[in-house]
Amino acid sequence: MSGRGDWFRSNDSTAKTRLMMVGAFVGALLLLATSMAFSWPVGVGGDLTPAEEERARAFDAPTGSCLDWTPPDGADLRQVDCARPHLFEVTSNVDISAEHPPDAPPPDLARWQEIALAKCAPGATTYLGGKLDPFGKYTVNALKPSDAQWRDGDRKLRCGLQRAGMSGNLLPSTGSAANQDQSNVHEPGTCLALDGQNIGGPIDCDKAHAFEIVGSVDLGPAFPNEFPDEVAQTEKAIELCAPVTAAYTGGADLAAKGLTPYPDTLRPESWEVGSRKVDCKVGAKLSDGSGLAPVRGSVRAAQTPSSTAPPSSTAPPPSSPGG
To answer: Is the pTM of this model over 0.70?
Structure first.
């Protein structure tokens, strides 16, 4: 069996569509509109180079393993310690041979999407303790057998979790997903691209962007019981984000710069599975109020260390491609 596999790359054009299977909730798989192949050239006579052997081991890594590579082609796919930045965490290896006998042709991409939805969601949810935030930090994806592996009889689907930005590009994670808060918050200092009126992934703050993340706050203590509606969340987030924003900007007059604080809110499905943290953001409105205006440059105070979260913020572990 060759050491080669194909990768499904997520394309999240609607920003935050996520796979969900929690209790009575069953959501839809993030549409995997493109397929990115990882190629492991096989040496003459079946001999593999050390790099090819490493890629083959990574492709067959067991549940709980973390994988990393250099986008976009994944030629250096490797298994890494989950404490290090990585792009994929294996949640299960699922055998689909019962439904696909030896003479069955390999599924097309649309069918692979259906298979991944049916086979990977339960294992990912179990891996996360039975709770998967459909609008949270992680998405479910899969490594599938290549056509050559399929012809050799490989019917194993390698399911896993990854973090995808709003534009579908991948974001490194640090630490095992099994032990992470799933709230979709970003590292302070992250700027998110503006594509028309769509929010994209992280971008250099010197380039035109929609928002700059100045920190994050925890809404949980303010709402210990039932899910708060969006108005209540917004009011509390504005209150909690004010000192975070002031600390990050050094007390800058944002209005004088044409900037506005924008706190995030949570959906009921996220609240149901325990997500409580939201980003505090700064952005600008178009002059006619019809949408977001592009912003250039950071609002971070010069004396604020880039690697330190502002006081009162709740920042995730260091992460970097992407939502």
So the answer is: yes
